[in-house]
């Protein structure tokens, strides 16, 4: 045990009128919504990297956090794990997520790094049995070390490609051993800065082959979880091969992987790609590749991915509306890929950031469920497109241009604009949030 979270109580649901900050006001894990417990709908996960590996630095200043587990040896790594599972016990969320570099020190060789990871995985296994916390997904850090400055799968150096492949194998093995329900590929440096030194065609082929290898290995070891790719616009590479859901889907189709791989979609990345979060979720759902989400938000004045905890209920409600409309999560869940502000130094800040975020998500999901049960939005959409279902229009999309032109002339079709009723629907939405 550590004493980092000393005197902080286990967080329980106490309702909107709770007298303490250390309580859930809206997240009641046992409450049933649309026939399912809130805990089973939301499937919350804590992100190990932001909560336990991030030191509070920014481009203009270094570490602001003092944590008792800072260090680069196995003793520090195990102390970090002990503190992490203490937070998990306080929050009671069912899952966590991690990269390999978050949880183990870098070794003098790849083999030593792998052994360090395996030792920590064994430690995790013991902690998971003690607390009941499960692994939502594992992933590999293929971006922080300088060896990955030109990418991993897309790197011009075949040794880096090989090192990245070996790293992913070790992380998939770890995820499998811990019963992880998904495995994520995070392509933060799979892109380029300038075409002056880039062979686009070669790099795309490398990326496609790399992902195929991952899928093949997952099948080989009997991994039953879902392989996920996370779209990453402008973070940090200028031109990303995995820019948004549409771009990734085209990539998956090109390499025949659209039935094998789904998406882990982050709110902040959707915004950086010029989309809304609900747009990316709806598109992934309609394409059959919606898997899991990273829940956070950006500072809309900064123009960067600031990874803040969510606090906007209407935005969150629209996101969960698209998720619930697709039937809800299966292996996926709500991972808080969010970090404290660098001035929020205390253990209480880390706990309360998650408490507030879990309450916001609970409010958003409840609102989304109420919206679906009301049916007003779907009724409005159905009415807007109703003429497409009339018998005289049934064959329009299978006709050719000459047939359509003849019909327009014969029937003297002269359409008038119809209102999209956006403000009316925004007013409808505000009844729920």
Automatic annotation (TrEMBL):
GO terms for cellular component: cytoplasm. It is found in: Cytoplasm. Keywords: Carbohydrate metabolism, Cytoplasm, Isomerase, Magnesium, Metal-binding, Xylose metabolism. The active site is at residues 99, 102. InterPro entries: Xyl_isomerase-like_sf, Xyl_isomerase-like_TIM-brl, Xylose_isom_bac, Xylose_isomerase. Mg(2+) 1 binds at residues 230, 266, 294, 337. Residues 115-282 form the Xylose isomerase-like TIM barrel domain. Its cofactor is Mg(2+). Pfam families: AP_endonuc_2. GO terms for biological process: D-xylose metabolic process. It comes from the Bacteria. GO terms for molecular function: magnesium ion binding; xylose isomerase activity. It is an enzyme of class 5 (isomerase). Binds 2 magnesium ions per subunit. Its EC number is 5.3.1.5. It catalyses: alpha-D-xylose = alpha-D-xylulofuranose. Mg(2+) 2 binds at residues 266, 269, 305, 307. Belongs to the xylose isomerase family. Homotetramer. This is Xylose isomerase. It comes from Roseivivax isoporae LMG 25204.
């Amino acid at each position: 045990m550590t004493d980092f979270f000393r005197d902080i109580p286990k967080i329980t649901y106490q309702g909107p009128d709770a007298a303490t900050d250390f309580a859930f006001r809206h997240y009641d894990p046992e409450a049933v919504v649309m026939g399912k417990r809130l805990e089973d709908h939301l499937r919350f996960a804590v992100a190990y990297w932001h909560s336990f590996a991030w030191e509070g630095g920014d481009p203009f200043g270094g570490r602001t956090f003092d944590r008792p587990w800072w260090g680069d040896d196995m003793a520090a790594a195990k102390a970090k794990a002990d503190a992490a599972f203490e937070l998990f016990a306080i929050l009671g969320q069912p899952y966590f997520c991690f990269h390999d570099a978050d949880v183990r020190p870098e070794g003098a060789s790849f083999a030593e790094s792998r052994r360090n990871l395996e030792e920590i995985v064994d430690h995790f296994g013991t902690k998971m049995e003690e607390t009941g916390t499960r692994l939502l997904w594992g992933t590999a850090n293929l971006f922080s070390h300088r060896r990955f400055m030109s990418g991993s799968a897309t790197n011009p150096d075949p040794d880096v490609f090989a090192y990245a492949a070996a790293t992913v194998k070790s992380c998939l093995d770890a995820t499998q051993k811990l019963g992880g329900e998904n495995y994520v590929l995070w392509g933060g440096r799979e892109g380029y800065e300038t075409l002056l030194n880039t062979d686009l065609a070669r790099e795309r082929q490398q990326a496609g082959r790399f992902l195929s290898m991952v899928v093949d290995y997952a099948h080989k070891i009997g991994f039953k979880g879902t392989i996920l790719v996370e779209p990453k616009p402008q973070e940090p590479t200028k031109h990303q091969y995995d820019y948004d859901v549409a771009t990734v889907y085209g990539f998956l189709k090109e390499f025949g992987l659209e039935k094998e791989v789904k998406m882990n979609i982050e709110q902040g990345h959707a915004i950086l790609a010029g989309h809304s979060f609900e747009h990316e979720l709806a598109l992934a759902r309609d394409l059959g590749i919606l898997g899991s989400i990273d829940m956070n938000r950006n500072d809309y004045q900064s123009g960067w991915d600031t990874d803040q905890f969510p606090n906007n209920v209407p935005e969150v409600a629209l996101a969960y509306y698209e998720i619930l409309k697709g039937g809800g999560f299966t292996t996926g869940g709500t991972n808080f890929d969010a970090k404290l502000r660098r001035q929020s130094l205390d253990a209480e800040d880390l706990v309360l950031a998650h408490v507030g975020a879990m309450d916001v998500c609970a409010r958003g999901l409840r609102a989304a469920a109420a919206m679906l049960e009301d049916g007003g939005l779907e009724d409005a959409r159905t009415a807007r497109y109703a003429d497409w279902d009339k018998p005289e229009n049934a064959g329009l999309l299978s006709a050719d241009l000459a047939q359509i032109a003849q019909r327009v002339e014969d029937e003297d079709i002269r359409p008038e604009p119809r209102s999209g009723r956006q403000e009316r629907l925004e007013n409808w939405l505000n009844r729920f949030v």
